[in-house]
Write a structure and sequence with these properties.
It is a single chain. The chain is mainly α and 79 residues long. The chain has one domain. The longest helix has 50 residues. It is elongated and about 80 Å long. The protein starts with a helix and ends in a 9-residue tail after the last helix. 0% of the residues are buried.
Length: 79
Amino acid sequence: MTRSTPNVARRQIHRLNVYKLLSNALLRLSKRVSNSEQYVHAIANELVSEAVEHDCDVIAFAVLSDIRERLPHARRRHV
């Protein structure tokens, strides 16, 4: 056995530990993404149900960033 063998073993152990850490992190992330996708799906279902309930033909979405600058004379609430 040469002196470099312990270094090789340490590197392999280090790589294995890094792999385990990354694997666990990816597993946690995938669970969060899955939960987020379920949440978005539930919201989409609610929007469609609301539209059907009120006999809507269209569901429209808009980018609302800088809306006050784009519509300076609009009231805060149009209801």
